[in-house]
Design brief:
By secondary structure, the protein is of the alpha+beta class. The chain is built from 10 helices and 8 strands. The protein is about 40% helix and about 15% strand. The strands form 3 sheets. Strands 3-4-5-6 form a 4-stranded mixed β-sheet, sandwiched between helices. A hairpin with a 6-residue loop joins strand 4 and strand 5. The longest helix is centred in the C-terminal third of the chain and has 16 residues.
């Protein structure tokens, strides 16, 4: 199960709890499982999110893709990955269901079960929670995996929290690819050449132009002429467009194939009121 930790013991679990794994709010959250601890069949990555102000630990392709959609959604204000479930309650649920609680390989130590994501919808006053487990379809056919999911579902049902199972084969891949493409245009605080302030200034110019444009060309053609008109290097305008799409300033159907070559008529600039609602998660 673990690449970095080969011998799970009660002492080690207690130590990790003392060190704050699986605890913390918002940017201070520390996931129970890290990429260095987990044996994964797919990609593992540590992905920084400006929206959530921290680096997330993602241990499979399906987790990465699910996270991209969660981060993109305006109404989701926080995401906690690899969240541990209360161990004593899980043991009780397993016993009630007649399921043998999973143990760490080669031990009799009951495993600390986790859910892949716990997403927070809305603000702190009226926040709603939703749990997600991400699986490949073939993994979900494994009897042990099915039993774990049964325990997890009962755990969240007792907390009146919806639990969703996300299959890699069922993900809207065109949407995921477009989100990942737009995310690549995000302005990073540590950029040097050009600087974040310069990028934001040019992004504001792009927004103003698009809000008043009657151009019927495709987005990539508009971006090419934007570079020429402003004396910018090739590709700069498209970088700005991707940033504006990611910020939901330039609104479009994110499921559109070949989004970069879609006509400008399929995009619109969000009004200031819309942006305020998006920022508040409403």
């Amino acid at each position: 199960m673990a690449r970095g930790i080969r011998n799970w013991t009660e002492k080690l679990i207690a130590q990790r709890i003392r060190e704050g794994y699986g605890e913390g709010e918002g940017a201070a959250y520390k996931p129970w499982i890290r990429t260095a601890d987990f044996s994964s069949l797919g990609r593992t990555t540590r992905m920084y999110s400006a929206k959530f102000a921290r680096t997330l630990e993602l241990v499979s392709d399906v987790e990465i893709r699910t996270f991209l959609m969660l981060e993109w959604a305006n109404d989701i204000t926080q995401v906690y990955e690899q969240l541990p479930l209360e161990r004593e309650q899980i043991l009780q649920i397993a016993a009630a269901l007649g399921i043998r609680h999973p143990c760490y390989p080669g031990t009799t130590v009951p495993a600390v079960m986790t859910v892949d994501f716990l997403a927070v919808h809305g603000n702190l006053v009226d926040a709603k929670l939703q749990a997600f487990d991400c699986k490949r379809l073939e993994d979900a056919k494994d009897p042990t995996t099915r039993e774990k999911l049964q325990i997890t579902r009962a755990y969240f049902a007792g907390r009146d929290i919806a639990h969703r199972l996300v299959f890699s084969s069922k993900l809207p891949m065109q949407k995921v690819e477009n989100i990942e493409w737009a995310r690549g245009g995000v302005i990073k605080q540590d950029e040097i050449n050009p600087t974040p302030s310069y990028l934001r200034e040019k992004a504001a110019s792009t927004t103003h132009e698009l809000a008043h444009s009657t151009c019927t060309a495709a987005l990539n053609e508009y971006c090419r002429t934007f570079d020429e008109r402003h004396g910018l290097r090739s590709g700069f305008g498209m970088r700005l467009a991707r940033h504006l799409i990611w910020e939901h300033t330039l609104v479009c159907d994110i499921d559109t194939p070949r989004l970069e070559s879609a006509p400008l008529s399929s995009f619109r600039v969000a009004q200031s009121g819309e942006l305020l609602l998006q920022a508040s998660g409403a």
